[in-house]
Amino acid sequence: MSQSVTSAANTDSASDRLQTLGLALPELRDNPYYVHHRTVGSSIYISGQLPYKDGWLLGQGIVGRDVELETARELARHAVLNALAAAVQAVGELDRVRIVQMLVFVASTPDFGEQSQVANAASELLIKVLGENGRHARTAIGVAGLPVNSPVEIQMVCTAV
């Protein structure tokens, strides 16, 4: 892990670090068919989050065909911000969130093979914002397609600290 990732995570609160990065947690819109999170015991299950910003999906297509790697990485950062917003809904404040596991789905061509590079963008953001509480177990997989033709979807399991 780079020194800049670890040193940034050792200062201020998670909310301050998020703001320093020029980011803010979005407001999540209610959905009549599912909830953004469900708590069972000490575990908080975050529904799959797409890269929406202000109600708009930021990109569509298949990575490796319609979407470039760096664009997919940026979309993963937006999706993980939405997942963090759901976690904050569950625990009340960003400093209480600990990520346990993250599952990153990348709609990609069969020969793409760089799903982990897309997922790394989300992982890096979690560590920059949450420090050690952002380190997590992770799976990144390629899929044939995702809802509304999104290139990326992120699902998480977290807990409160």
Automatic annotation (TrEMBL):
<feature type="domain" description="Endoribonuclease L-PSP/chorismate mutase-like">
    <location>
        <begin position="17"/>
        <end position="152"/>
    </location>
</feature>
<dbReference type="Pfam" id="PF14588">
    <property type="entry name" value="YjgF_endoribonc"/>
</dbReference>
<dbReference type="InterPro" id="IPR013813">
    <property type="entry name" value="Endoribo_LPSP/chorism_mut-like"/>
</dbReference>
<protein>
    <submittedName>
        <fullName>RidA family protein</fullName>
    </submittedName>
</protein>
<dbReference type="InterPro" id="IPR035959">
    <property type="entry name" value="RutC-like_sf"/>
</dbReference>
